[in-house]
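Researcher: Go.
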Amino acid sequence: MANILLTNKCIRECPYCFAGREMAQSEGQDFLSWENAVYLADFLTASGERRVSLLGGEPSLHPEFVDITLYFVARGFDVNVFTSAIMSSARLETLARHVAAAPAERLNFVCNLNDPEQTPTTASEREQVEAFLARLGAWTMPAFNIYRPDFRLEFLFGLVERFGLRKRLRLGITHPIAGAGNAWIRAGEIGAVIERLCSYRHAFEAALIRPSFDCGFPLCRVVDADLGWLTRLGASTNFKCRPAIDITPDMEVYCCFPLSFLDRRSVFEFDSFRQIVEHYRKLQERVRTEIAGIYDECGSCIHRSEATCAGGGVCHIVNRLAAEAPATLKKIADDQACLS
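Model: Structure:
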């Protein structure tokens, strides 16, 4: 799936932010132009890609956010909009009025929600989030990024019940951005994180909510009993690490936010979206020839050899190489640059 950044601007300053360095260092245009939006719709359609995610920064900051979102829906795409839900009442009113006429199965808002106590925010921002959920809860899937081992999910279950959100909770383990100093879950903490997550099993069952794992969860840290429970619950468990493919407003492309500094290209260098994915898949393979995974045992793990687990997020490996072997990381990038 292509991730299209509508803007490099954001509203929040989350301590774990994957895109923090990208937002801070961006020197390109602030907003995706209509010309580039149409080009990307044509490019993805010709590539046979029918799903797209719109994000930022905060995508609703784009002056034509509503029109661009509905344009991709009208072009036949299944659209995910990743948002903090923090927007003006006027923007929310316009969005809600038009979304009501959009096919519910084709448009999904992924609302990144922070624990109001562990990640405090202003009263005004909380009010805007609740106003968004009150108007668009039926189109909204809650999402939560785990950046500390003592995370809590109680507030999320309350929001799902209160606002009638979709019964799937997108869960992500936060990843390091080399040199950025963001908050993230260390490899040695992941087992405890998964154990804590599964301690909420009765709450998930009572609320009829299915967890959905984003990339970066290693299979070996999930005990068989919990894996069985997740399977029976119908959870979406993702133990892979594939290129996410982020496209900036000025049409640069890279593997994913944590790897945005590594082998950035232009969309115009590629003939198809599949070609972009393959290019960055090879980049990930080159990284893993140096270090197989985030644990020492990843190199000989049957789950990794059978491709049921990727061995954790490749960004963890890149973070380690950047600190311990920058020359090796540069050689990987240089070798990849020759594959034009």
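Model: The two ends are 22 Å apart (CA to CA).
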